[in-house]
Amino acid sequence: MEIEAKIKIEDIEKLKAKLAELGATLIRARHQEENTLFDFPSGNLYKKRCALRLRDEDRKTFLTFKGPPLKSRKFKIRQEYETEVKKKKQLKKILKELGLIPTISYNKYRSVYKKKKLKICLDETSIGNFLELEGERQDIVQFARSLNFSKKDFIKMDYIQLIHKEKKGL
Description:
Layout: E1 2-9, H1 12-21, E2 25-39, H2 44-47, E3 51-57, E4 60-66, E5 76-78, E6 80-85, H3 88-97, E7 101-115, E8 118-125, E9 128-134, H4 137-146, H5 159-168
Antiparallel strand pairs: 1-5, 1-9, 2-3, 2-7, 3-4, 4-6, 7-8, 8-9
């Protein structure tokens, strides 16, 4: 079960300094991720609020299924299953044979930190910079507070929803 909160940030360098001050450890330096979502032509996965994502980062590829979000006022909570893919071309052929097509792609730069059990990601995207906190609810809230954020700053939308919102000019 993935529990996370996303927060839009303005000054990424200032936030990196604050993370270091709070004792967060950099576990994965800034790297590029290319993400492609797959769905059936009917949009069945999207309609069910699920996602099937193929992610390339460095020389590795991961396939991730995300189930529909559970009800939560401030957090994005959903089942998530992920596996590393050794033969990306073969996987794409399998997805195509199953009737799945690529529906949207986006890139981001990500740096990953850790503070105890909390995973902290700094994401640089075409729609802005975001802090993503993943872990237990109370750990997320406490760490966000230490960065001078509150629950009202939490964004439950995923990057696809944020990209669509940006395109619509909302």
